[in-house]
Description:
This protein is α+β, with helices and mostly antiparallel strands. Among the domains are: 1-103, Phosphorylase Kinase, domain 1, CATH 3.30.200; 109-303 and 332-341, Transferase(Phosphotransferase), domain 1. Helices cover 37% and strands 12% of the residues. A hairpin with a 2-residue loop joins strand 1 and strand 2 (24-32). Helix 5 (121-140) runs antiparallel to helix 7, helix 5 (121-140) runs antiparallel to helix 11 and helix 7 runs antiparallel to helix 10. The longest helix is centred in the middle third of the chain and has 28 residues, at 280-307. The termini are far apart.
Amino acid sequence: MPAGPEPSRLRAPWREGSVILGRYRLEALLRRGGMGSVWRAEHLELRSPLAIKVLEAEIASDPAALQRFLREAQTAAALRSPNVVQIFDYGAEAGQAFIAMELLQGESLSERIARLGRVPPEELFRFLGEILRAVHKAHEAGIIHRDLKPDNVFVVKDEPEFAKILDFGVAKVQKGVLGEATGFGTQTGMMLGTPYYMSPEQAQAKGIDRRSDLWSIAVIAFEALLGQRPFRAESLGDLVIAICTQPTPVPSRVGPVPPGFDEWFVRGTQRDPARRFASARDMAEELEQVSRSMTDARLTTTRGLVHGPMLAGLSSPPGPSGRPSAAPSNPLGRSRPGTTRPTDARDLALTTGQRSALTRLPSESSPRGSNGALLLLLAFGALILVGAAVFVLSGGARALHEAEIAHAPGRAAVAPPAAPTLALPNPELAPAAGSVTPRPNGARAPR
């Protein structure tokens, strides 16, 4: 467990599980930021777990910072969205300001990137679709987040997982559900946010609108999908120059990305805000098209697997009814994540030849299939020739010839000649003893 803060930070004697803040007991430190810390806590009366965000005591002494902290709680509480962290309470105890919010189980998107290196596209697109819906709702309420980054996107452990936006601490609130803005916009020359994910206008401390958040989301997608940020530098000044002037990197030249992602990213990171997506909804719809094309390509491969006799065992896993489960047609159109089938590990074991055969379009001919048909035709012809030879050698041709003669029109059937017979001698006509037997030419036989 991380070491606890100094007693002066919380203005209470520190012992694990003993710090009381209003109606809450602080139990363990979860993380610490530049302006405060987040703790796992328990409601003293309800015994329910929750998270408490505590503003640093030194910062809480500044009335403007304290007012901004209150505005953060009001902003998050006003957004009734399943993809925004839920706020339960706000208060101050002995000069210590705090926000009570839901305790989330899971990990931030930055932790997932660090753990996996790259987030699978089907997961990332689902999370981004949920974040874009929440951002669209915030924009309609006149709220610009201004600090969207992987640290402020939390992946909630659930079945299935889903994403939530955290930390509206530097949000710009315009006229909307919270009424008129009260002077918490960016002052001239004041930079608020995390530089790596800032739009050019935000990095130059110029006036921003909702399209600045869209730039940040595009940068988040690049980093999560490819494992590195699109704009990097050793110093803040060089980073601002890179964001504002250097050529925008093409994702597919950095690593493998789904078809259509290049166009989506380039449009999201146009330096002229007028050339970006008009709204978070438009950005989500275009991302849905990229996700759908990726799903269609996977389904085409799956159909090839089902119809291939050698690979029939690699079809989609069966659903509850025993039939193969179908992939969702609209992974970004739900308020909660859908049930997309993850890539089967066995699909990754296919050889290069199998992949090229499976991804071939139905209209394309297969060279291997053409050769097989030709060999089959040659084998069939050889069998016919062998049968004919056997037929001739067995006398079948002679029998057919005789049958044609026998049934020819205008011809009588010719009976075969009768076999010669010998007449037996009559004993009554036999010559008597001493008689002369005639001989040819009148010759007599001697007695």
